[in-house]
Amino acid sequence: MARLKRIKGGFFVTFEGIDGCGKSTQLTLAQDHLAGLGYEVATLREPGSTPTAERIRKLLLDPKARISDVGELLLYEAARAEVTSAEIAPRLKAGLIVLCDRFYDSTTAYQGYGRKLDIKMVKQLHRIAVGSIRPDLTLVVDVDLKTAFSRRGRQLDRLESQSRDFFQRVRRGFLELARQEKTRIKVVDGTPPPTVVFEQVRKHIERKLNRR
Ligand code: TMP
User: Fold this and answer.
1) Orientation of helix 194-210 relative to helix 23-36, angle to 10°
2) Three-state SS annotation for 29-88
3) What b/e readout covers 112-140, taking b as 16+ CB neighbours within 10 angstroms?
4) CA–centroid distance, residue 210 to ligand 1 (Å)
């Protein structure tokens, strides 16, 4: 069997957006596409992807759990520290393409903009959690709230149960981050059918990949 392609230093792509935006579908399409091109691809999700981080995820999403805003922030960063050191950093070092369903921009958007915690402090915590790891490309799949809400399941978790205003702030937060970091963060319209959205996603990934 032919050896799978690797990239020196790896290639790290994160998928972001509000709940129901379709980012996980885009990640799966990207995984299939890149594997088809012969790359070695790893897919992860946040919070989660290690036994400890999955336990933290369960707690964070439990509708019955009562967690303070700062506690929530620290739990997301704790889960991130786990997956970054155990899964993301070693795979990038080995030259893999790592696709992650959410990463630190979710914390800036949800806990920073959504919960109105201090953005500067939130970003400082990212650095503590991940060190020098930074996505090469971040795709924000953007949809309006009506579309997002219509795509969610019946059973809402603790985060999904937040108000419309909360999600409006989170959505604006993602778009604001994209304005601030135009080179790294690309916004794609998540409204059309998944294969149409993926054309945009594919273009952004290939453009960045070709520069490596
Ligand atoms: P998921 O539904 O995309 O798997 O993400 C789990 C939930 O956690 C989702 O509602 C977004 C939220 N979240 C945060 O609030 N902060 C974070 O840092 C991350 C990674 C997710």
Assistant:
1) 50
2) HHHHHHHHCCECEEEEECCCCCHHHHHHHHHHHCCCCCCCHHHHHHHHHHHHHHHHHHHH
3) bbbbebeeeebeebbeebbeebebbbbbb
4) 30
- Residue of 16, 43, 46 to mutate, ligand 1, most atoms within 8 A of C-beta: 46
Task: Enter the tokens of residue 203.
Answer: 């273009």
Q: Which two tokens stand for residue 67?
A: 């967690």
Nearest residue (by CA) to ligand 1, atom 15, is 110
CA–CA dist 169, 103 (Å, integer): 18
pLDDT tens-digit series, residues 70-123? 999 999 999 999 999 999 999 999 999 999 999 999 999 999 999 999 999 999
Q: Tell me the residue type at 77.
A: E
* φ and ψ at residue 66, rounded to 5 degrees: -105, 115
What's the rounded Cα separation, in Å, for the pair 168 and 145? 7
Looking at the chain, the whole-number percentage of residues with pLDDT higher than 90 is: 96
Atom 13 of ligand 1, residue of closest alpha carbon: 106
Distance (Å, whole) CA 99 – CA 13: 5
DSSP β-ladder status, 11-16 and 185-189: unpaired
**pLDDT, average across residues 39-45:** 98
- Model pTM? 0.98
